[in-house]
Amino acid sequence: MTITESRTDLPALATQYAENGFVLVKGLLSKQEAASYRETSHRLLARLNRDDDPTWQSAMGMSEGKTRLQHLHDAQFYDAAFSRLLVDPRFTDVAAAVMGVEDVQLHHTKLFVKPPENGSPFPLHQDYPFFPHKYHRVGAAIFHFDDAPEEKGCVRVLPGSHLGGPREHDPSGSFHLPEVPFDDAVPQPAEAGDVLFFTYLTVHGSGVNISDEARTTWLVQYRDPSDPPTVKTHDHSLGQGMMLRGVDPTGRSGV
Ligand SMILES: O=C(O)CCC(=O)C(=O)O
């Protein structure tokens, strides 16, 4: 099951998101824009030439050989093109509609490149345990800057899994959900320009990139500013608390 909608029908998006915990919005960016962001992403990572690999410890057993992942936190602090995307109403209007709120606040961002042939997978997990919030009005948008068919290790989700609320995650090392079979999660193949929105309670992960092309995505995590964190974690992220849409009615008390 892949739940896809056009970004212009906001009530339909909100309904799909409420029922399934995710929605794939087709063509939110044009192919040209996606190609430009892809180029910017790869150029930036090549220029920084960092050698850190964020592959999860718990992902090691998901493939035969060693896998690799390139990443960059806070890309909007390196290139203004990413800042523009953060406040683009094509994105923020959907983020607000699916959360059922007016105001959208930045939590953090992560640029990922899964290299060809051995791009690292992500074990199934909720994002909730990494940064729990009181009312769970926290979501993610994954921008696809190139095509992500299943063989490129596209994102997978467990439809409706958000409805059961927070789950107990394996506390050893990186949080994940060893009891949920990986194959239960439904692949969400996407094209360049598509954006996958999901709640931080939706169980998700992704497979190994076994194709001969990189998979390039930008993950933006956002929240309702009226939803306070219950634990102060992840507050090293640059720009956390920046308003992407509307106002912060709390006067920054949650930041
Ligand atoms: O980009 C992906 O394949 C999944 C990323 C993810 O699940 C995460 O960063 O929490």
Features:
alpha+beta, globular, eight-stranded mixed β-sheet, 4 helices, 255 residues, single chain, binds 2-oxoglutaric acid, four-stranded antiparallel β-sheet, Jelly Rolls
Instruction: Let me know the CATH homologous superfamily.
Output: q2cbj1_9rhob like domain
Report mean pLDDT, rounded to a whole number: 93
Largest sheet: 8 strands, mixed
Give unreliable regions as ranges: none
Q: Mind telling me the CATH class?
A: Mainly Beta
Query: What is the fold-level CATH name, i.e. the topology?
Result: Jelly Rolls
Instruction: Give the H and E element order.
Output: EHEHEHHEEEEEEEEE
Number of strands: 12
Shape, please?
Answer: globular
Radius of gyration using CA atoms only = 17 Å
CATH architecture name: Sandwich
Which percent bin holds the helix content?
Answer: 10-25%
**Separation of termini?**
37 Å
Overall tally of structural domains: 1
Bound ligands, each once? 2-oxoglutaric acid
Strand content: 15-25%
Helix-and-strand structural type: alpha+beta
Helices, by number, come to 4
